[in-house]
Design brief:
single chain, 272 residues, alpha+beta, 2 domains, five-stranded mixed beta sheet, 10 helices, 12 strands, globular
């Protein structure tokens, strides 16, 4: 984690204002996105296009001229209580770049109002719902409500079992070997504890593991690996003594150091 953070600071993030954005989702959509990583990527693209449009518009730039913001999104799969919770943590430039004659100019977005946030959230919500409805992944029940069609997939059911919260501090075991979970707040009917079979607990924990080949860190806009003006934005590589130091290291020491491939394992990027 420290190696990756050092890489982001030294080789990806320019010395420009950044803002952290977090996109959380309804419980049913968390389940859907975990079950279908491709759809998760599509929703993330919608989120990022909305951010890009917002940043460019705020600083008076047109996307048609090539203006772009930049962001790195970390896909989180669970909350602090081991509950299954797909959500996005995004570091986004607080502004956007314009490009002219092979030069990059950054335009700072200095204001952010609550009204703007509400408008942006409404746009993201509308676009996500429209996209999922077109894909046949959700169906409209009435004017304001949607539901997910039933899906018969073993892994889906495992992940669905972890939608509710789970806190290690409130776990214990009874005389029958069952797992007893104490609720943080009692239910309306007076229920204060839930009894789980050991396999149910394992199912909740197993659902937190991402599916194979699912990248949990994504680069967008000017930070995307294939963005044509990326080299004008990211910090220039510093001449360091690393190569010289490598020559003095033993083979064992060299192999223990994090390689470029290792640092980027699980990372991917795409342009807006």
């Amino acid at each position: 984690m420290a190696e990756s953070a050092t890489h982001f600071v030294n080789e990806v993030l320019p010395h420009k204002p950044l803002r952290k954005w977090v996109l959380s989702l309804p419980f049913q959509l968390r389940y859907l996105l975990a079950a279908q990583p491709k759809v998760m990527g599509e929703v993330l693209q919608i989120f990022h296009r909305a951010l890009n449009t917002y940043q460019c518009k705020k600083v008076g730039l047109k996307q048609s001229t090539g203006a772009r913001t930049g962001a790195i999104t970390f896909i989180q799969r669970f909350g602090g209580s081991l509950n299954f919770n797909i959500h996005f943590h995004t570091l986004c430039l607080d502004g956007a770049y314009s490009f002219d004659d092979n030069k990059a100019q950054f335009h700072i977005n200095q204001t952010l109002s609550h009204l703007e946030l509400e408008k942006l959230l409404k746009q993201i919500t509308t676009r996500v719902v429209r996209h999922l409805e077109r894909r046949g992944l959700i169906q409209k029940e009435d004017e304001n409500n949607y539901y997910l069609p039933n899906r018969e997939n073993a892994f889906d059911h495992i992940q669905a079992s972890s939608i509710t919260c789970l806190s290690e501090e409130r776990l214990s075991q009874n005389a029958k070997g069952q797992v007893v979970y104490k609720l943080k707040n009692a239910y309306d009917n007076g229920t204060t504890h839930i009894v789980l079979k050991p396999l149910d607990l394992i199912a909740r924990l197993a659902s937190l593991v991402p599916r194979p080949r699912v990248n949990l860190t994504r680069f967008f806009g000017v930070f995307a690996p294939h963005f044509k003006h990326r080299k004008l934005v990211v910090p220039k590589p510093k001449k360091s003594k690393e190569k010289t130091e490598d020559k003095t290291l033993t083979p064992a020491q060299q192999s223990s150091r994090m390689t470029w491939t290792q640092r980027h394992r699980g990372l991917s990027g795409c342009s807006i």
